[in-house]
Design brief:
Layout lengths: L2 H8 L7 E4 L5 H12 L4 E5 L10 E2 L2 H11 L2 E2 L5 E6 L6 E8 L10 E2 L2 E6 L2 E4 L2 H11 L21 H13 L12 H7 L3 E2 L2 E2 L1 H7 L8 E7 L7 E8 L2 H15 L19 H13 L10 E5 L3 E7 L22 H9 L9 H11 L6 E5 L2 E7 L30 H15 L5 H8 L3 H11 L1 E4 L6 E5 L5 E4 L6
Parallel strand pairs: 1-2, 12-14
Antiparallel strand pairs: 2-6, 3-6, 4-7, 5-6, 7-8, 8-9, 10-11, 12-13, 14-15, 15-17, 16-17, 18-19, 19-20
Helix pairs in contact: 8-9, 9-11, 12-14, 13-14
Length: 488
């Protein structure tokens, strides 16, 4: 680089990959930016530039070079950047100091300066968030230390769903991804082939995929909210189970709350919902397969609003991908390689790195609006908006529409009415201004049945039809507590 090159470089002012300092008196601040470059897309640090973008340089001697080398030793892992000294015309002995830093490479440790990690946001250097730092540390571990490869606690082979495993093998054989010999293999041989069993010990990946034991570590939260925020819900569920059980529960929740055409037979069927089934299924598969399971206090979530569906999964996007670039062709960066490998072999995953494309293609094929991806508080979220122009309308209050159930089956099981009443009571507790129509649609019964159940529960409407609310009468006839939920 010569002086003219430097002039062209600084003419753009500071950017995500360029930091300008007046002199080495700002070495410490400069090294923070250097650390940020190393943790981001690389960059150039220049000393000898005035705030007005004039190249002023500084006297550079052995002491200056020693100071630069010494402070760079505070960056870990150690780095060896390209350093250039640019002479300043008309100022003998004055030089600008240019340091070039390489970008971060996926799978390597995050860099720190004096014990703190930094990263770059536009032209600003910031301390790296803990979530991102932990993510980088995890990516740097050898695969044998990955969470999915660690021994599963209190899970034995007899705790696995052998029928589900054998069924997955058959699907893989039919799809040409598993040898026919596996049809006659022992359960232990299958698990060892899939790297789910080693020396008689099952790993966490085996538990996620096939465990029959219910654990809070494998949870799916599902909620149907009224409106466009999380203030008021009309359905709220939590289920625990293995991969297949969470998939079944999640897809059933979509079928319950979205407009459906076609027969509901399972999450492998090609049904037509407000959002394409294939897109929702692929997004849920990705959420379960690629989640960060080390965040044991977090769980996967499905949220259905009046204007969108959001599926969130603990973790962050791989460093190579952004919410924008993830929609473009890209390589596969599976967080849980063993999980992904088994799901690919058994035809659940179609191709490596093709999940997002399949989601986009499914939406395009059915004229649905394009989904978006973003990161929020340690979660990756995919959001499916409803395309109102194409007649997409989520199930909500439809008055006395033809979609309202008119009559319930006459041979209803004896315990079903009590379950329904408890469900209705929970719905009213969560929203004390909900309409009878909305309750009927939520639980799948007629208005008459809802009215009868409300009466049996001692719940009545108090006040004007538009501004009143539900209250509960105690047996003695006194007013019970008001269900304290803000009006929708």
């Amino acid at each position: 680089m010569n002086f003219k090159d430097l002039e062209r470089l600084i003419s753009q002012d500071e950017t995500k990959s360029l930091e300008l300092k007046k002199s080495t008196g700002e070495l410490k601040e400069g090294m923070r930016s250097a650390c940020a470059f190393l943790n981001s897309d690389g960059g150039i640090l220049v000393f000898g530039i005035s705030p007005s973008l004039k190249i002023i340089g500084q006297i550079v001697n052995e002491s200056t070079r020693r100071d630069v080398a010494q402070i760079m030793s505070g960056i870990e892992p150690a780095v060896n950047p390209v350093v250039e000294y640019i002479d300043i015309p008309g100022k003998p002995g004055f030089q600008a100091i240019v340091l070039k830093f390489n970008p971060w490479v996926y799978g390597t440790r995050p860099y720190t300066f004096q014990g703190k990690p930094y990263y770059r946001v536009e032209s600003v250097t910031k301390v790296m968030p803990r979530d991102l730092f932990d993510e980088r540390i995890m990516q740097n571990r050898p695969r044998k230390y990955a969470w999915e490869m660690q021994p599963a606690e209190n899970i034995r082979i007899e705790d696995l769903d052998e029928g589900r495993i054998r069924g997955a093998v058959r699907v893989g054989v039919e799809g040409g991804r598993i040898s026919e010999m596996s049809l006659h293999a022992s359960l232990e041989e299958i698990l060892e082939k899939w790297e789910l069993l080693e020396n008689g010990v099952l790993n966490n990946a085996a538990a996620v995929l096939f465990s029959k034991k219910k654990t809070r570590d494998f949870e799916l939260r599902m909620a149907r909210f009224r409106g466009t925020d999380k203030l008021h819900f009309i359905d709220n569920q939590r289920v625990h189970g293995n991969f297949y059980e969470l998939m079944d529960a999640g897809m059933a929740f979509f079928f319950k709350h979205l407009s459906l055409s076609g027969e509901i037979t399972g999450w492998y069927r090609e049904e037509h919902l407000d959002i394409p089934v294939a897109a929702l299924r692929e997004a849920l598969i990705n959420a379960i397969c690629h989640r960060d399971y080390e965040k044991y206090q977090c769980s996967i979530g499905i949220a259905i609003y009046d204007d969108r569906i959001e599926i969130e999964s603990p973790g962050l996007l791989p460093r190579e991908l952004t919410p924008e670039s993830i929609k473009l062709p890209h390589r596969s960066y599976p967080r849980n390689i063993t999980l992904a490998s088994v799901l690919y072999s058994t035809m659940v995953l179609e191709n490596w790195g093709s999940g997002v494309k399949r989601i986009m293609d499914a939406c395009k094929a059915e004229g649905a609006e394009e989904p978006s991806w973003f990161e929020e508080t340690g979660f990756v979220v995919v959001s499916f908006p409803f395309n109102k122009l194409n007649g997409v309308e989520i199930k909500k209050n439809r008055g006395n529409s033809q979609n309202e159930p008119q009559n319930e089956p006459q041979n209803e099981p004896q315990n079903e009415p009590q379950k329904r009443k408890l469900n209705i009571e929970d719905i009213v507790k969560s929203n004390n201004t909900i309409s009878i129509n909305e309750i009927a649609l939520s639980v799948g019964v007629s208005r008459i049945t809802v009215k009868r159940d409300l009466k049996a529960l001692g719940i009545k409407w108090e006040g004007p039809s538009k501004t009143g609310h539900w209250v509960k009468k105690e047996k003695e006839g006194r007013e019970g507590e008001y269900y304290d939920t803000k009006k929708i």
